[in-house]
Amino acid sequence: MENPPKSPDGSEKSPPSKELLTSNTASTLCISSRSESVWTSASRSKWEIYHKPVIVVSVGAAVFLFGMVITSLSCIQIKNKNVYKMCGPAFLSMGLMLLVCGLVWIPIIRKKQKQRQKSQFLQSLKSFFFNR
């Protein structure tokens, strides 16, 4: 068992740095538990909210159309037919996957926005009734 270090006056007291450490840790946990995005009511534009899924849908549609063109070239072109037959379906599937992921992402964001609005409303009600 280790003895606590003695202070300069000779008493066996824990150093002040350990006392401050526990109090700072508690206040830091309280501060870090409240992220700024949840507690601020700054409204964001539709583009800021939906820009990622819109970009994914756009890229997916472009890759899907590119896959359709390459697949149709395999039917028309005689030269390099095997390359078109291999690459066309690959681009078709990647484009379709991105397209579907983006289209599914949009309702998920809408649901999260509704939950966030409900949460902010409940927080304002709580603060109104409990801070009086």
Automatic annotation (TrEMBL):
Q: Locate the transmembrane regions by residue number.
A: 54-78, 90-109
**Where in or outside the cell is it found?**
Membrane
Q: Where is this region: Disordered?
A: 1-22
One cellular component GO annotation, for this chain's record?
Answer: plasma membrane
User: Which Pfam families is this protein grouped with?
Assistant: PIRT
Q: Which UniProt keyword terms apply here?
A: Membrane, Transmembrane, Transmembrane helix
Q: How does it sit in the membrane?
A: Multi-pass membrane protein
Molecular function via GO: phosphatidylinositol bisphosphate binding; transmembrane transporter binding
Domain of life according to the entry: Eukaryota
Which InterPro entries would you find in this protein's record?
Answer: PIRT (IPR028068)
What name appears for this protein in its UniProt entry?
Answer: PIRT protein
Which species is the source of this protein? Asarcornis scutulata
- Gene coding for it: Pirt
